[in-house]
Write a structure and sequence with these properties.
five-stranded mixed sheet, six-stranded antiparallel sheet, alpha+beta
Amino acid sequence: MSAPVKVHVYDLSKGLAGQLSLQLTGKQIDGVWHTSVIAFGKEIFYGPGICETEPGRSHHGSPLRIIDMGETAIDEQTFAEYLSQIKEHYTADKYHLLDFNCNSFTNDCLGFLTGGSLPSYIKDLPSDFLSTPFGAALRPTIDAMFRGRAATGVLTPPPDIPNDSPNPALASSLLQAVAASATSNSSGAPSSSRNYLPTPAPTSPPTPVQSNSLTTPVHIATNPSSFHNVLHTHRAVVAFFTSATCGPCRMIEPVFEDLARSKSRASDVAFVKIDLSVGMSNAVGGEYGVRVTPTFILFLDGNKTHEMKGVNAPELRTQVDLLLYQAFPPHPHTTLSLPAIEAITLNAILFSQVLNLDTVLAKVTGFVDAAPSWSGSATKEATKQILAKNIIPYLKARGSSSPPNISFDPWKDVTTSLATNLSAGELFPVADIWRIALLEPAVCGWSATKLGPESPILILLSKAEGAPRNYTLTVLKMISNAFANNVIARELLLSSRSSITTLIVASLLHDDATVRLAAASLAFNMAAHLQRLRVEKVRGNVKEDDVGENEDWDVEMTSALLEAIEREKVNEEIGTPW
């Protein structure tokens, strides 16, 4: 008799991921998904081991959504035996927020019960997160948290969050809250309604600590469906068939994990461990004729390409490198020796000179007082107060050990009101304030959340067409500084590439050499940002859509730069001919 199977989906961030992910990562992530299987009147999930409770009674509360996964022909006793077999894999010390988590367990159970798998938006969440620059930078921090837990049983507080995070304190607290929720053994349900399957006593010599912690991106497959899912979602797959009592397997396993750590590529390359003594893993081994352990089988586009048996670390490394070469042959240009080009830094050109801020404030205040009329969300007096009491003091405190803890939202209202009521000729000190402000990571993090008409950068950019020399120059410098931040650069390319290109092309042919130099700097920063993405794409760290290729833009920018170079003569700013 068949039984229904459902999946409960929870957001471990309690909505914060949807609100803050764009600010922290540059990519919209709607939730940090935790899943559990509902079958035979029980909710089963992985956290502090394999846990069972009444549906909807776990410490995660009510599910955000319920996914109907169909029905299973497996009976309850067979499923219970399967859980008992895999419990030594799904232990508390092996939990890892990115690599081996509740979704790994749910996917295994679904494969056993129905042959299905979780939706891609849940399975691909770790890859989506790690594909962002901030996610990649945060990976060592997450590994350190769970490596400490594997050794001590206590979740280690996040070590130093990378400095390029828009808000390190916020990132740290959010990460700690999500990790604690994922691994908590507390519950709002009565203790009698919960059952934590105990970790079995070891039946073989202990596995090395580096394997237990699973802080490497190794997939675990315990049934054919979960293994086939990995084959279908990754171009290159390295499968490691092992068993709990295999001594040679423990010798070669650190090499396998080291390869997984260094060679895994988001959704392109996967390293899978199949323990033939667990669950239905023997069915996976039988499908590919595995009779001894350790056995390694390599797959390309789902097809078996090579098999090797025994402990031979050099041969394993060679075969993995050959597989990846076949799957991702290097771009022809990577074989060229171009030392002059390789020596060019891709660091953004910054305009970091800070003028006398009191003078800048006096100039803006004078323009505000002289305005014949005023409209907008911020009145004249409010505008002057926010400038004098909020914005200028914050900029004066740049570089201090304890900068003022202020809200940046009034900055948007002030910028909008100033842009509405002042002419472009009077706005250049406002753009200069933003040029300086965008050198601050906290301001950049806030700015990345203000898109479209809410973006002060785009508000000031919209006034640049046909503007006087001073305003054009200052806006070029402001946007150049903005491109030093990957998140803002991405948003500017997505929303305003055409407007920025129009400004650059016109400014490259400007009569003033300083304007031409600022335009060339902005053009370089845009090109450098795109080149960094191309390099990361070749390395497999970003997806095709994130690179933002546009051949028409390439042609337009190249034509404008060639014409500017043709016209350019020796000038004092650069010191040499172009």
